[in-house]
Amino acid sequence: MVDTVTSEEQTANVNKGLDPIVKYENVHKSFGDVDVLKGINLDILPGEKVAVIGPSGSGKTTIIRMLMTLEEPTSGHIIVDGKNLWEMEKNGELVPANEKHLRQVRGDIGMVFQHFNLFPHMTILENCMTAPTHVKKMSKKEAKEQSIQMLEKVGLGDKLDNYPNQLSGGQKQRVAMARALVMRPKVMLFDEVTSALDPELVGEVLEVIRDIANEGEMAMVLVTHEMEFAIDVADRVLFLDEGVIAEEGPPSEVIQNPKNERLQTFLHRFLG
Amino acid sequence: MNWNNDLFFQALPFISKGIWITLSLTIVCYVFALIFGFVWTFLKRIPNKAINWVVTWTMEFIRSTPPLVQLYFIFYAWPEVPYVGMTLSPFTSAVIGLGIHFSTYISEVYRSGIESVDKGQWEASTALNFTTKQKWTKIILPQAIRPTIPMLGNYLIILFKEVPLAATIGVVGILHLAGDFGSQHFRNIEAYTVVALLFLLMSYPSALLVNKLEKKMNMKFDKKATNGSKTLNDSEGAVS
Questions:
Q1: Are A247 and A263 in contact (CB under 8 A)?
Q2: Per-position DSSP letters for A100-122, written without gaps between them
Q3: Is residue B31 part of a domain?
Q4: Cβ atoms of B26 and B163 closer than 8 Å
Q5: The domain containing residue B220 runs over which residues?
Q6: For residue B175, is pLDDT > 80?
Q7: pTM of the entire predicted model
Q8: What is the mean pLDDT of residues B107-129?
Q9: Which of A9, A172, B47, B91 could in theory staple to A116 by disulfide, Cβ–Cβ 3.0 to 4.6 A?
Q10: Does the residue B19 lie in any domain?
Q11: Contact A216, A13 (CB under 8 A)
Q12: Is B228 helix (H, G, I), strand (E, B) or coil?
């Protein structure tokens, strides 16, 4: 069902020796008394595809939500393209970032959500056009051209004037991807994007992600439960367990040849 | 005492002259409440515990005191308040009193409208890097306003029915004129029947209208609602 690519080919895609596009430095996150993340250190290289796996409650989603600025880290630093995301300099001191600073830095990041979060009051085309026109100040004509191009790429060129509620879950998720892609982020985050879909609709969404991944230039972080897909697309897999990265490496090691005992148990449930 | 048809038809035009005042007071109060309701909603969203506490309890206080008492206070007691006190006309007093009273309810309507918008809509607009203002104007408000329209309509009708309270401080609406008519002719039944009739004639069609609006909005909103984890396998028919 899935063509498996060898790990050598996968690592060849990674631009070795580049500065990381995203850097997590000892990042902690607690919700109340619960420590969700207990010191995450992670470099993501430009163009690198990273899959994050792990049991639910292990903090996988929190990792990417902090990068999207939807969740503030309790401590530690997240550096995006050399810029400190959650802190800024003011009179020579590091202070918590304000909205203006966050907007400057998060322009490089895009995200696709589990529940799509399409704008229900806009057509498919408007969903894609709204951010380029209002955030990037692109001309309507240009935004429209690029949005149509992106929607055609995800196979929805014939649905431009439909509203989200007229689409299937798989179609909605593909619109959500086009909407994020049209902003040309350097890093794209995928938060369990197939979890809310009926099983028969998962394939079409993974297909699109695979196409995007093959283009190469954009770094991708995929929080996923689709192990075969992770093997196929990812350059590197992180196994997150109890708030730390318990094991990491190419998929051929982490998924196909796991060392960590809890990882073995975890994978057993998915791969049998 | 018997019903007097002649008196009824005398009372009708006499009292109807007050319709204009009653309606305009309703409209002005309503607009005042809509604007002030927005102010409350805005104040309540300020992330400061002290401000939040003051705003919450002020609103609670306004809601728990009868509007009639508030009208009396504004009209009779406010002029005696040192420094800030001033004499206000009956109409202005009624606008401030009823307007502020209803603004606390309207504010709740706004709040429920805003909260009806899925959290994911905020997150998606953050992910697309909208400014705070753009999030409100392009994404949240267009979705938040729609479900509040029937509720706002209901409050308009409720307000309309509270407006006769203003007669007690001397606003010459239909209730006040009915009182005048009654004391001139030493009979009240015809005059107050006219008042009841006029209110029925104005409220009932409005209520029907709001009902219809509500149904229409619900239908539209059901059709447009999305974003749940529930997925549709097939495209539905086009929404015209």
A1: yes
A2: HHHHHHHTTEEEE-TT----TTS
A3: yes
A4: yes
A5: 10-227
A6: yes
A7: 0.81
A8: 95
A9: A172
A10: yes
A11: yes
A12: coil
Provide the pLDDT confidence category of residue A29 given band limits of 50, 70 and 90: very high
Please classify residue A9 by burial: count the beta carbons closer than 10 Å to its beta carbon, then call 0-12 exposed, 13-18 middle and 19+ buried. exposed
* pLDDT over 90 at B52, yes or no: yes
The pLDDT of residue B222 is 54
- Judge whether residue A69 has pLDDT over 80: yes
Looking at residue A28, its amino acid is H
Strand blocks (E) in A119-186 = none
State the Cα–Cα distance between residues A206 and A227, nearest whole angstrom.
12
Do residue B118 and residue A135 have CB atoms under 8 angstroms apart?
A: no
The answer, yes or no, to whether residue A225 has pLDDT greater than 80, is yes
- Alpha carbon of A23: minimum distance to chain B alpha carbons (Å): 19
CB B166 within 8 A of CB B173: yes
What CATH number corresponds to the domain at position B68? 1.10.3720.10
Query: Is residue B139 less than 8 Å (CB to CB) from chain A?
Result: yes
Do the domain assignments include residue B124?
yes
Q: Tell me what the pLDDT averaged over chain B comes to.
A: 87
- Say how far apart CA B68 and CA B163 lie, in whole Å: 10
- Specify the number of domains making up chain B: 1
Is residue B232 assigned to a domain?
no
- Residue B167 near residue B173, CB atoms below 8 Å: yes
Amino acid in position B102: F
Residue-wise pLDDT for A112-142, tens only, equals 999 999 999 999 999 999 999 999 999 999 9
- Single-letter amino acid code for the residue at A87: E
Compute how many other C-beta atoms are within 10 angstroms of the C-beta atom of residue B65.
Answer: 12
Q: Which helix (H) or strand (E) holds B192?
A: helix B189-224
Among A247, A252, A250, A271, smallest CA distance to A54 is for: A247
Phi and psi at A240, nearest 5°, equal -100, 130
Rounded to two decimals, the ipTM of the complex is: 0.89
Give A97's Cβ-side CA count (13 Å radius).
21
Q: Is B229 on the interface with A (CB under 8 A)?
A: yes
Which pLDDT score, from 0 to 100, does residue B211 have? 86
- Between chains, do B128 and A180 touch, taking CB under 8 Å as contact? yes
Of residues A107, A113, A134, nearest to B124 (C-beta): A113
User: How sure is the predictor about A238, in pLDDT bands with cuts at 50, 70 and 90?
Assistant: very high
Is the separation of the CB atoms in B183 and B14 below 8 Å?
no
Both tokens assigned to A52: 């994050």
Which tokens hold the place of B111? 């709040």
Which of chain B's residues have a Cβ under 8 Å away from the Cβ of A118? Answer: 124, 226-227
Tokens at A168, concatenated: 């299937």
Return the percentage of chain A with pLDDT > 90, whole number: 78
Q: Could you say which of B131, B139, B236 has the minimum Cβ distance to residue A119?
A: B139
- Model pLDDT, residue A16: 55
Instruction: Classify residue B131 by burial, with Cβ atoms within 10 Å: 0-12, 13-18, 19+.
Output: middle
